[in-house]
User: Which sequence fits this backbone?
């Protein structure tokens, strides 16, 4: 069954949001998708809390998603993220195995 590696970022300072959005769109999402070997990647802003950004990286195999935490690819991207945003953006990560999928 497939799985997603999900990153939740909170951009507390509204003045940072526009540049963060550009950076994630143009640089980070494409780079992370390639580095992780994800099948698909997408991102978006929460409609419930405008400061919350989600990025999802989808894998056909849950083992690939589970291998990301602690991987060299993630460590490199975390270091890059920290250099770019420091303490301006707080984030958390999760691996979610797809239990059911319904397609219309």
Assistant:
């Amino acid at each position: 069954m497939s799985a997603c590696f999900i990153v939740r970022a909170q951009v507390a300072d509204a003045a940072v949001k526009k540049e963060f959005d550009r950076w994630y769109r143009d640089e980070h999402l494409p780079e992370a998708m390639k580095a992780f070997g994800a099948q698909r990647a997408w991102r978006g802003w929460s409609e419930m809390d405008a400061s919350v950004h989600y990025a999802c990286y989808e894998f056909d195999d849950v083992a690939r998603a589970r291998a990301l935490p602690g991987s060299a690819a993630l460590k490199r991207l975390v270091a890059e993220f920290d250099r770019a945003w420091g303490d301006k953006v707080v984030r958390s990560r999760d691996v979610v195995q797809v239990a059911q999928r319904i397609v219309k």
Q: What stands out?
A: The first strand starts at residue 3 and ends at 11. The chain has a mean pLDDT of 96. The longest helix spans residues 14-36.
